[in-house]
Amino acid sequence: MRKPGNKILRIRGWALAMIFIGMAVMYLGVFFREIPWVMLIFLILGIIPILLSFVIYFWVGMISARTVTVQCPNCERHTKILGRVDYCQHCKEPLTLDQELEGEEFTVDYNVKHRREKKIAELREQRNSKD
Ligand SMILES: [Zn+2]
Question: 47 C-alpha vs ligand 1 centroid, how far in Å?
Answer without folding.
Answer: 37
